[in-house]
Design goal:
Structural class: mainly alpha
Order of helices and strands: HHHH
InterPro entries: DUF4327 (IPR025477)
Number of helices: 4
Organism: Lusitaniella coriacea LEGE 07157
Distance between the termini: 25 Å
Radius of gyration: 12 Å
Shape: globular
Number of domains: 1
Helix content: 40-55%
Number of strands: 0
Strand content: under 5%
Largest sheet: none
Protein name: DUF4327 family protein
Pfam families: DUF4327
């Protein structure tokens, strides 16, 4: 039996969804607002987001609606 490992962006997306549901950030807030929450790890996540075509001015909600994080 093979076990599939979730893409790191799936976990990131889940954490963002939790932040929105907790009213820490709004889905309409720009992605750059979460930089303060991720501190030293932000450069990694920022690079991942840029690779998937996001800009730091895009709303957080744009990340939440992604169905699949394929790296083709």
């Amino acid at each position: 039996m093979t076990q599939q490992v979730a893409h790191p962006m799936v976990k990131f997306q889940s954490k963002l969804r939790s932040l929105v549901e907790s009213n820490i950030v709004k889905s309409s807030d720009s992605i750059w607002k979460i930089a303060l929450l991720y501190g030293d790890n932000w450069s990694y996540w920022k690079n991942e987001l840029v690779e998937f075509g996001f800009s730091m001015q895009d709303p957080i909600g744009d990340i939440l609606v992604v169905d699949a994080w394929d790296e083709d």
